[in-house]
Structures are given as structure tokens and as C-alpha cells.
Amino acid sequence: MAMRSPLVLVAMLAACEGAPSYLQGRGYVADREATLGWVLLAIASAVVVVIAILVLGATFRRRPPGGDLIREGGGMRWIVIGAIIVPSVILLGTTIYSTVVLARVARPAAKPSIVVQVIGHRWWWEVRYPGTSPAEAFATANEIHIPVHQPVQLELSSADVIHSFWIPQLAGKMDLIPGQTNVTWIEADTAGAYRGQCGEYCGLQHAGMRMSVVADSPAEFTRWLQAQRQGAAAPAADLAAAGEQVFQRSACAVCHTVRGSEAGGAVGPDLTHFASRATLAAGVLPNTQGNLAGWVANPQGIKPGVIMPAVPLRPADLHAVIAYLQALK
Amino acid sequence: MATVASPASDLALHERLLEHWETRPGLFGVFGTVDHKTIGKRYLVTAFVFLILGGIEASIMRLQLAHGDLRLVTPEEYNQLFTLHGATMIFWYASPVLSGFSNYLWPLLIGARDMAFPRLNAYSYWTFLLSGVFLYSSLLVGQAPDGGWFAYVPMTRAEFSPGLNLDFYALALILLTISTTAGAINFIVTVFKLRAPGMSINRIPILMWGTTTTSFAALFALPSLTVACVMLYLDRRFGTRFFDAAGGGHPLLWQHLFWIFGHPWVYIVVLPAMGIVSDALPTFCRRPLVAYTVVALATVTTGILGFGVWVHHMFATGLAPLAISFFSAASFAITIPSAIAVFAWIATIWHGRPVIRTPFLFMAGFIVLFVIGGVSGVATAAASFDQQLTDTYFVVAHIHYVLIGINLFPVAAGLYYWFPKMTGKLMDERLGRWNFWTMFVGFNLGFFPMHISGLLGMPRRIYTYPSGIGWDTVNLITTVGAFLFAVGVLLLVINVVRSRLRGAPAGPNPWDGPTLEWATSSPPPPYNFAVIPTVGSRHPLWEKRLEESGRSVLDEGPTLEAEKTTLETSPLDGQLTDVLHMPEDTLYPVLHALALMATFYGLLVRSTWLSVAGAVLVLALTIGWLWPTARALEEA
Ligand SMILES: [Cu+2]
Description:
The structure holds two protein chains of two kinds.
Chain A: H1 5-15, H2 28-60, H3 76-106, E1 114-121, E2 124-129, E3 138-141, E4 143-147, E5 152-158, E6 163-167, E7 171-176, E8 182-186, E9 192-197, E10 210-216, H4 218-229, H5 238-249, H6 252-255, E11 279-280, E12 285-286, H7 289-297, H8 299-302, H9 315-327
Parallel strand pairs in A: 1-5, 4-10
Antiparallel strand pairs in A: 1-2, 2-3, 5-8, 6-7, 9-10, 11-12
Helix pairs in contact in A: 2-3, 5-9, 7-9
Chain B: H1 11-21, H2 27-32, H3 36-64, H4 75-110, H5 118-136, H6 165-193, H7 206-238, H8 251-268, H9 271-285, H10 292-305, H11 321-333, H12 335-350, H13 358-381, H14 383-389, H15 393-423, H16 429-455, H17 472-502, E1 565-569, E2 576-581, H18 588-605, H19 608-626, H20 630-635
Antiparallel strand pairs in B: 1-2
Helix pairs in contact in B: 3-4, 3-5, 3-17, 4-5, 4-6, 4-15, 5-6, 5-18, 6-7, 6-18, 7-8, 7-9, 7-10, 9-12, 9-15, 10-12, 12-13, 13-15, 13-16, 15-16, 16-17, 18-19
Bound molecules: copper (II) ion (CU).
């Protein structure tokens, strides 16, 4: 088992393309961490194999037959070479290598021009783009867009307990800690959507605190930014307009903000452009009509313990609210 | 002083010694005994009960995780399960089980009649047991701790966790630290004062180096945990704001306090286990341990370095890269002393003539698991890679290779090795081999794939995961392996129980072991040795055949039969300095522990009445316990 480990590992990693493995980096930081990781795992596997062979060899090597107890003496060479010289060389090498990586990924070569503020909530992510002026600033949730090939500065803080920001294929973790703001950065080198998840146990729905980072081409990213800065357009269809009424009247508006409408709650995610997001409930479900209806009707069934309550709505009202939310493009 | 030279088989002597040392039968004896052998066995059995409880919790979790999106337990139940599992295994199994071995073995290893403070020893046991009962009583009210075994604030402050869950956690841990502190003091005084004449400090078994090191480590590390738990309790119940950022406190204060304790604790639960291997392996290699002195020094060095690496649990908290690289380098460096032990064991096998019996299998398997757990630890020492690894299943794999590989496997080896001494019966060898192979295969099948799920990005402490993103198969394998492993542990328990009832008689020294415990009968008489031996070398029972220069004397010497006494010797050279009177059996320890527990229940439910009554009782019992005996007054 132990000896086959490196092979097993490679085989299993190859078989699991879909998994967010940090051994397959897609960003500046993760790439370097992944290379370091592969080197460490290779050394580790080699050490395990050598030791396993030594244990087997020591046990089963041929010996002159018979005899009573063996006198002390001999063996110091094993310690000097095996336990002191060889490991010191390896450890010194890896210490230097890993320190170099740490220094290289600590901050980007140039100061990032884009800043994203991420605020951890139980159990979702508030995402703010302050822009260069208050007029440009807007908030969204659970889905972060960045331009590919550009460093983006992340300012991480928490509204309640400790969470950890983690997009395995872009960079290692950085905690969101109440009372302090941790600054880190990411840079994607391939366009695409990257799955992430809260990396520090944060209570009941820690498992359901997921998110994604979407790396867009610069043009797409600019389009996205401009769209997000706008408030929500007034709903065109009657059903959606009726839904807006329901939303404003019922508890929804107490907790959620829809910019451009009267809803200004700050307990839950900003829903201004909710329909533009690919997932629902902090990355737990694809954002489809069916899932959305299930969520609004009974959030506790999907994320037991979640802060959003089931708001009692008549079926027709529910139907209308869903239409409204789906119109928030 | 009675320095009668007398043959050990003298029946009259036996009778006279029994009179002083035998525990009276009946309830008083059960609750009042201070015999280290009884206490040691109780520690072992109790720790195994906790191991099984923790194992049941783990099994439920493994069923839930066998596939994505399963709903066997609710998130609330799952969080309680993994918190109880972690706390149980780390605090109520891994360390106490080693205390069990040490309590049972130490006086036998050093030719003494008991530990230095037998009543304190009983007290350590009772507080350990009752702290565990206290913890598990949380299940009766459905509010078991749910903050993870390291209970990070502010999630565990009353704001976010209003129930009793974390009060159980904080108070049970404080109770346990009382037990562990008392135990540590006892070990330290015993090793430095009670060794048989001639047993200089460089002649003690490595297990004793391990436990002595961890006892010192515990004395320095535990206050940090105690303080953290007291502060947590005060924050929760008295509205202090030690950990509240908005009130001028800081959440990271908890993490520093916890890990300043927590990392040394990792060594506390492995160093004595490594000592078990260093002492038992030579018996099965038919030669002394290679490089005894270096291994002893490496043990102490590990204990010291263990205090310099706590920040490697906090690489993702936003500390400055310079601080991180310092702790990262220290974490790399701590590998060297462990490597020394590994190569000493391999060299001992290589230059020996191995006899492959069950204990040997467990020890050889352990060496490989130790190295896997070691190198995965080295991977986490690389700070920037650790920012990926931390809080993923890779770390879960690592801690299990450490805790099961470096603790449970040596513990199993130690049980097979010393069971004949403890019971006078041999364990079944055939079942033993089945036992080893199911545990070894099950363990690797169950826990090796956790490295992979971790590398595939699976975080720890999630009650479920989406199926279809590549995590299902590895998790299913893990679950199957974990259950196979559980069967292995069950075989161990079955073998112990069966051999206890029907094992073949063992005789005093079934393995032809070299150290003092094998010089007395199996099981040893209540007074351990009829004649206190004089020690002339590290291997009193082998020295003639090894043609060593030292000469131990085992059947002639002081018999100390007039009173309940044992010898006191000097800390380093082991020269006779005095004769110590040893205390009689007493109910004070168990009553004191019960009163303390009552006080803690008072604090738990915030009943001033119960807390104060308990505290007064504790005080009264302390006074009663310490009340000078007639003899002490005479001597004063
Ligand atoms: Cu979280």
C-alpha cells in the first residue's frame, strides 16, 4: 500500500478531472504551490519507499544461524548517515525552496489595480468592488469575477466567525477573521470558473459555504463590471412586477438589497443581479428555476440551519417572486 | 533500615509484605486502592473504552461520507460527532492510554514498590475518569461540544453558540488538565527519586525518557490550555471579552494559547509510545537498542523543539511571511530527532536477529506508518504549500497516521508485550497475527486515500459534499477501510478478553526480556519486588550473557518488610539516600474528584448553590487529605 502510493496518487488524480485539486494550479500562486507540492510529495514517497525496503531488508536479510544475544555495538553509522546527514541535506533544500516560494507568492510583482473586498458571513460570501470612486462601488455575493492574467487584490474580513477564503486552483487559504483585514491576492492564468469553499470550520453550514471565482477575458470582465454597477431594471413582465411587490411587502426586503428598488436589507446576499449568477445559496445549487423555487419555499431543507427562514408565501406569490428574481439579470 | 539479605521465594517474607501492600477486598479496596498496577490497568481499560466510543463516532461519520449528498445525520449531529471524536481520541484516549502503561510499568521498571505519590496517582485516575463522564454527559442533554476539538473563537463564544455544548468542552478540559498535571508531577518525582540503587539516569528505559519528557512538556503546556478554557468559560458565561474583537480582545489569542499547548501535546501523545517501541523492539531483535544515548537525547530534544512550532497550525491566519518562515524552518528541523529514532530502530533490527511475533509485527508496521505520518507532516511544514493543505483531508490523513500509526500501533505492540506481565497469561499468537494484518491493511486502506481526497480539494469537517466532483470513490474506499480497521481493533479487544480468561500461563519472563519488570512474577505481587534490586547496567537480565561489565543484584538486598516503605535515591546517580513511608489506601482521592466534578456541574448549569457547596467540600477534603499523620507529626 505504502509503496504504491505515488502511482496510486497519480492515477487517482488523473481520474478525477472534475475535482478542485490544488495540484493542478490555474493561477500564479497555485502553480508555484503545486510545483512545490509535487516536489515534496515525490521526496516524501521516495523516503517512504526507502524506509519500507529497509525495514523489510533488516527483518529478512540472511544471517549466520544460531547464537544467543547479540552484543551492543555497531549501528551508529545508520544514525549518522540515515538520520542526520541525508535528512539535513534534504530538509535544508526543501526549507530553502519552500521559503523562496513563500516569498514569491507573498505579493504580486506590480500593485494590483483591481481590489475586491470579501466579507465572510455564516454561510455565504459578501463581495464588494469598491472601484475608484463611490459611484463605481457595488456589492454582490458568492461569485467573484476577475480578469484573467491580472493580479487582483483581495481584502478579507468577517462579519461573524472565522472563515477561510480558498480557491484551490488559484491560491492557498487566507482566513477571514473578525477584527482584522487580511490582504492577499490571486491571479488566474486560464479563463474559466473555479470552485472554492470555506476552508475554516464555521458552524452548521460550513459544508454549504461554497463560492466560485470566474476569470473572464478583459473585455468580458469590463462588460460584467458595467452591468453590475447598474441598479436592477424595473421588471418588464407583469408576473415579475407582481413578484417585486411581494418581495417588497414580505420579509425578503428586510434582509436583502436590490439596488434600484426599495429593498435595502443587509442580512443576506445582495440580489440586484442575482439571475446573472450561476449558482444559488453560496454555490450549493445551480441557479435554475426549480432550485430557486425550492430554496425560497424552504431554505432549511436545502441548507439546514441557514440564517434565511422559510417565509410563508401563497403559491401564486411564490411563483411571482421567482419570476422577479429570475428577471434580476 | 532492614537490609536483610533474603531469598525472594521466602514465604514468610511474602506474607509480611502482603500485610503492608495488599489492597483490602471489598468496596473500600475498589475505591480506595493506591496500587499503581491497579491504577495503571484502570487507565488502560478506561482509555480503551474511550477509544471505542470515539470509534463508534467515527464509524457514523464514515457512513455519512461514504458517498456525496447522503443525509444519515443532520449537520448539527455531525458537528457534535466530529468534535466528540477528536476530543475523545486526543484527550481521553491517546494520552491516558500511555499514562496507563507508565503507571503500570514505571515502579516495575525501576525496582520500586509504587509511584512517588500513590494517592495523587489515584486522584489522577479518578479525575481523568470523571472528566470523561462529564464530557459524555453532554450527550444526555443532546448538547455535546460542536466547535471542533480546537474550538476556535468567536464561533464558540456564547454569541454564536448559546447552548451548553462549549461549556461542557471547556469545563471537561479543565478537569482533565488537573488530572494530567497531577500525573505529570508524579512521574517526574518518581523518575528522579525512586529508582533502585545503582540505576543511574542513563540506565532507565526509553519509555521513561519519553514519559519524563512529556511530563515536563505537560507542565509547561497545560497552563496555556487551562487559561484558554477558563477565558472561554468567562467569555461565555460572565460576559468578559477576551476573544471578542469588538470589545478589544482578539480571536487569534485563542489560537495562540491553544496551539502553544496543542503542538507539544502532539509529542506528549507520541513520545512515550515511541519509548514503548524502543524498549520492546530490542527484546524481539535479541540485542540492546542501537544508540540508546542518542535516542534518549533525541526524545528530550523533540520535547523542547515541540514548543517552537505552534504557529505552523496558523499559516493561513495572515501572519507576516517572516514569522511564518521562521516557524516553517523550525517545523522542518524537528524532523531530525524523529529520524534518529527511526534509524535506531531499523539499525536495531538490522544488527539483531528478529523474532517475528505479534509485538514485532506491530512495531515493524509502526515504523512505516511513522514515516508516512512524518513525511506528510514535513509537507505541511512548507508554509506556502500548507496554505493549500491546511484544513483539508490531507491533514486529516496526517493526524491519523500520527495518532493511530504512532500511538495505537505501539500501544497494541505494548499490550501484546506486557499483557503476560499484567495478567500472567499469554495472548493468542494466531489471533494476534490476524489482528495485526486486519489493522494494518484496514488502516492503510482507510486512511491513505484521505491524502488523496485532501489533494483533490476536499475540506475537513464538512457533513456532506456534492457527489460527482471526483470525491465519491476515494471516500467510499476510506469508509470500507475504516470499517476493516475497526474490525482489527475489535480483534485486539477480543484477544485481550479471551486470553485474560483462557490464556496459557506466562511465567515471569516469557519473552526473555532484559529489564527489571521481567525479574518479578507475572502478575507481580502487590509489593512488586520482595527484594529491592541493585542495578548495575541497562539490561539487568541480559548483562551476564552480553558480557557487560555491570553487575546487578536481584535476589539479595533490602526487603523493607517492617513497614510500608520504598527506597529513595539520588536524582542522577541513583545512590541510596533515604527510606520513604508510603501511604495506605484511602478514599480521599475518589471523594475529592467527585466533589470537584460536582463543583464543575455547578459551574455548568450556573448554580451558585452547587458550585459553592462543591467548592467547600473540595476544600474540606483537601484539608482532610493533607492532615498530618501521627508519624509525620512525630518526625517533625
Ligand atoms: Cu465559513
